[in-house]
């Protein structure tokens, strides 16, 4: 039988091929980690400034090289800027590739006790994310009460990754958000490996699409491949992109208030609501930072996207 060979598996072997058996638990250092490739100061500033107002532990962002403006911001707030190990080599979509970066960094630093993996551009901090003791891996819901069956986007990628049967097996489970994951470093590292391996099945092209991370994450947790506690929304983390804007208010000191009157330390997707974005920017933004418009798509960009789309629909020879 001819061995399976494709770009994703080649990339995966390069990032996970080396045997690593770190003995976690020897330290008490906590870390917040994010993937900020393609971002400049305007997209990172609110995240960094709000986090540093509440947390003095390790903060690590994976960023592009040759961004002195971003390097200056991160250095001013004692944030470690990490370059990607694979450089200009082929890599899958960032939503998948980020877990390899996290896994490698954590495996090389077994003294890290607890870690928060989080999106960057649309996250603001309103307290110490580790104020509540960490007792195990925590998975946070996308929206209060929503099941996967109600999310066409997630169901689409579940089917693409694992087929109709597996998608239906978890359709009645809560929709989990891969944008914020918290837990002991050992458990988070194991989760990263599971997600990377899950993304290799059944077609490597799937790993190069936005949404694969969410599908793999929901499968891993709901099928018990990893042990995690599913946390309801508006606790340690508030994911509010799908929340009713009328239920989200701003306190006198500029904090986002949950519908129940509580304040979550971590707020994700606040930028989906105009009134919240204005308040967050007023509290944590800076007038001299402005977001640069995205580069126009070229013919080459569109052709590559078409090739990737076709590749996701063709079975590999096994």
Question: What does this entry look like structurally?
Answer:
The protein has helices at about 5-15, 40-50, 70-75, 95-105, 150-160, 165-170, 185-200, 210-220, 275-285, 300-315, and strands spanning about 30-35, 60, 80, 110-120, 125, 140, 175-185, 230, 235-240, 250, 255, 265-270. It is an alpha/beta fold and about 325 residues long. Helix 2 packs parallel to helix 3 (about 70-75), helix 5 (about 150-160) packs across helix 8 and helix 7 packs across helix 8. It is globular and about 65 Å long.
Which strand-content bin applies to the residues?
15-25%
Report the uncertain regions. Answer: 290-295, 310-318
Q: Which class do the helix and strand fractions yield?
A: alpha/beta
What's the overall geometry?
globular
Helix content: 25-40%
Order of helices and strands: HEHEHEHEEEHHEHHEEEEEHH
Q: Got a strand count?
A: 12
**Could you tell me the radius of gyration in angstroms?**
19 Å
Q: Report the span from N to C terminus.
A: 8 Å
Strand order of the largest sheet: 3-2-1-4-7-6-8
Mean pLDDT: 87
Number of helices: 10
Largest sheet: 7 strands, mixed
Short overview:
The chain has 10 helices and 12 strands. It is α/β, with parallel strands linked by helices.
What secondary-structure arrangement, pairings included, does this model have?
Elements: H1 7-16, E1 29-35, H2 41-52, E2 58-62, H3 68-76, E3 80-82, H4 94-107, E4 112-118, E5 123-125, E6 138-141, H5 152-162, H6 164-169, E7 176-184, H7 185-198, H8 212-222, E8 229-231, E9 237-239, E10 249-250, E11 256-257, E12 266-268, H9 274-284, H10 299-313
Parallel strand pairs: 1-2, 1-4, 2-3, 6-8, 9-12
Antiparallel strand pairs: 4-7, 5-12, 6-7, 10-11
Helix pairs in contact: 2-3, 4-7, 5-8, 7-8
């Amino acid at each position: 039988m001819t061995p399976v060979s494709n770009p994703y598996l080649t990339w995966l072997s390069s990032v996970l091929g080396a045997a690593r058996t770190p003995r976690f638990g020897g330290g008490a250092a906590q870390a917040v980690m994010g993937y900020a490739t393609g971002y400049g100061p305007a997209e990172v500033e609110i995240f960094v400034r709000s986090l540093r107002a509440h947390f003095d532990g390790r903060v690590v962002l994976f960023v592009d090289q040759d961004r002195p403006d971003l390097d200056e911001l991160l250095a001013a707030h004692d944030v470690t800027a990490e370059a990607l190990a694979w450089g200009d080599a082929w890599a899958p979509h960032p939503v998948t590739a980020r877990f390899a970066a996290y896994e490698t960094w954590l495996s090389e630093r077994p003294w890290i006790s607890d870690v928060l993996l989080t999106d960057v551009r649309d996250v603001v901090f309103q307290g110490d994310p580790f104020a509540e003791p960490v007792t195990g891996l925590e998975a946070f819901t996308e929206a209060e009460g929503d099941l996967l069956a109600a999310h066409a986007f997630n169901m689409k990628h579940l089917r693409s990754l694992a087929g109709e049967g597996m998608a239906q097996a978890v359709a009645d489970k809560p929709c989990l958000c891969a944008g914020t994951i918290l837990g002991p470093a050992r458990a988070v590292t194991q989760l990263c490996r599971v997600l990377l391996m899950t993304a290799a099945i059944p077609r490597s092209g799937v790993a190069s699409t936005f949404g694969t991370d969410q599908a793999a994450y929901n499968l891993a947790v709901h099928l018990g491949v990893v042990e995690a506690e599913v946390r309801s929304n508006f606790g340690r983390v508030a994911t509010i992109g799908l929340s009713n804007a009328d239920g989200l208010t701003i306190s006198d000191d500029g904090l986002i208030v949950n519908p129940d009157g509580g304040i979550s330390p971590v707020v994700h997707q606040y930028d989906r609501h105009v009134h919240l974005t204005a308040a967050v920017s007023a509290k944590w933004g800076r007038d001299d930072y402005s977001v640069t418009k995205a580069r126009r798509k070229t013919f080459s960009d569109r052709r590559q996207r078409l090739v990737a789309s076709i590749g996701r629909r063709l079975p590999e020879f096994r």
